[in-house]
Amino acid sequence: MSDHISELPDDILTNILSSLTLRDSVKARLLSPRWRHISAPISTLQFDLFTMFGIEYDENKGYFDTLPANFVNELKPRFLTAVDQFLQQYRAPKIGTLKIHFCLGNEYASHIDNWVAFAARMEAKKIDFYFSSFHQQNENYSFPCHLLNSHLKHLRLGACTFRPSPEHRNLLSSLATIDLSNVNLDTNNDVESILLGCLNLECLVLRNCRLPMRLCIHGHQLFKLKTLIVHQNVPLFPWHIELNSIDLETFEFRGFLGTFTFVAVPCLEKVNMFFFPECVDVLHSVFNELPSNLPQLQNLSLTLGSQNALPIPEIMPTFTSLKQLELSVMVTTSFDLLPIIFILNASPILEKFYLKLRRMSSSGQIQTRDCSNRLHLHLKDIRISGFYEQSNVMEVAIYLLKNAVALERMVVDVKDDLKTREKVYDLLMKEKVNSRVELIVNYEN
User: Fold this and answer.
1) Could you tell me which residue ranges the F-box domain spans (predicted)?
2) Looking at the domain assignment, is residue 337 inside a domain?
3) Residue 181 is assigned to a structural domain of this protein
């Protein structure tokens, strides 16, 4: 049977290829010699379990961890061959992103180095490589910084070794974003070898990297850095993070930690921190140091949790510029939520307050702390989600209805059932003192 489609002109075949998924495009090139030299412009070249084998996965959940090692090893030769052939036959002048996620180590460096060289030739603006180390018996792939060029703006690496030598640091100067996951940076020399060359870096992300006990980010290294994100989901953590003389605007931290130092960080207006329950003792220093060291802070997001009580001091310095506060609280039925009011009392110009409750199992009676009434003159928007009857969150809601004199809108999402939703609505309507307040009570399934 003759293949009439392959007899079509190149421009029509190019148009057909451009409408295919990358997976189908790879198949077409591998099966037909006529299609191998036809390249439709593709902004993102993505090679992973789904695009190559149709296996759906969530890259944020460590999918390789659930796959049998023998199965992964059987896929490797097919994956390497398919990617190599596709890139060798690709003829478009440029690409935007080269994204490759698979379980590969440094024993496949000859293949991966060619992929990096391909991205450089295609003037790619982003390289996104994640090589899961779960089924690896050999060392992680060592990324070849000497192959980079000035076209690259965004570099994301996972389960790799990334140690630029001094003679290649200048090749990092074009990068605006560096996102590293599971990369070993356990000495300050490792960190500095990266930061010293990144003169135009705007965003630095470090996820589950092995970091030095004292992580120092200084302005003389990073003149343009605006966003710093540090996530540590395992207790391989820095005991101390120091930010000094830097024009950072957003700082996000998740995990286990000792202490923070903020020195001359005048532009930092948004801070997001998630602390695991084992680290609640840190919060006393956070509540005392953040208002003092960051008087310009306008947006604060905290995730708190404890088996006993919320670690919020009754007296703390004033958040003089704070306008939006988001609290995500992991609570038990014996939790006293009233100490949340201490933060509100320390935020005199707060305009928006969002409280999200996450329930943990426990037993016992609520041991409440006294909270004095104080008027909140600027608080206009309040949302409470995860509301459930066994907690004393109703006391918090009633307190806010009575004391937020500028309140315009309160939204409560009830977790229990529709009957509880009606009960909560009736109780809050009785306590509402300002008829102009819009009260919305939803059932959160």
Assistant:
1) 2-38
2) yes
3) no
Give φ, ψ of 290 to 5 degrees. Answer: -60, -50
Q: Are residues 282 and 148 in the same domain?
A: no
Q: Specify whether the CB–CB gap between 299 and 323 falls below 8 A.
A: yes
Phi (first) and psi of residue 57, to 5 degrees: -155, 160
More confident residue, 322 or 314: 322
The per-residue pLDDT for range 17-56, each reduced to its tens digit, is 655 665 566 666 555 665 655 555 578 899 998 888 888 7
Give me the mean pLDDT over the 426-443 stretch.
91
Q: Which residue has the tokens 């315009």?
A: 408
Residues 282 and 146 in one domain: no
Pair type for strands 214-218 and 240-244: parallel
Write the single-letter amino acid at 386.
G
- Tens digits of residue pLDDT in 375-414: 999 999 999 998 887 678 899 999 999 999 999 999 999 9
Confirm whether 312 is domain-assigned: yes
Q: Is 336 part of any domain?
A: yes
Retrieve residue 395's tokens: 């006391």
Predicted local confidence at residue 11, as pLDDT = 61
46 half-sphere exposure, CB direction, 13 A CA radius: 13
Paired with 192 in beta bridges are none
Spatial distance between the Cα atoms of 390 and 407, rounded to a whole number of angstroms: 26
In 3D space, the residue among 149, 175, 160, 146 whose CA is nearest the CA of residue 101 turns out to be 160
**Euclidean distance between CA atoms 28 and 228, whole angstroms:** 42
Element of type H or E holding 290: helix 282-293
In this prediction the pTM is 0.85
Q: CA-to-CA distance for 249 and 226, rounded, in angstroms?
A: 5
Closest by CA to 431, choosing from 404, 421, 415, is: 404
Q: In terms of residue numbers, what domain contains 105?
A: 1-125+132-154
Number of structural domains found in the chain: 2
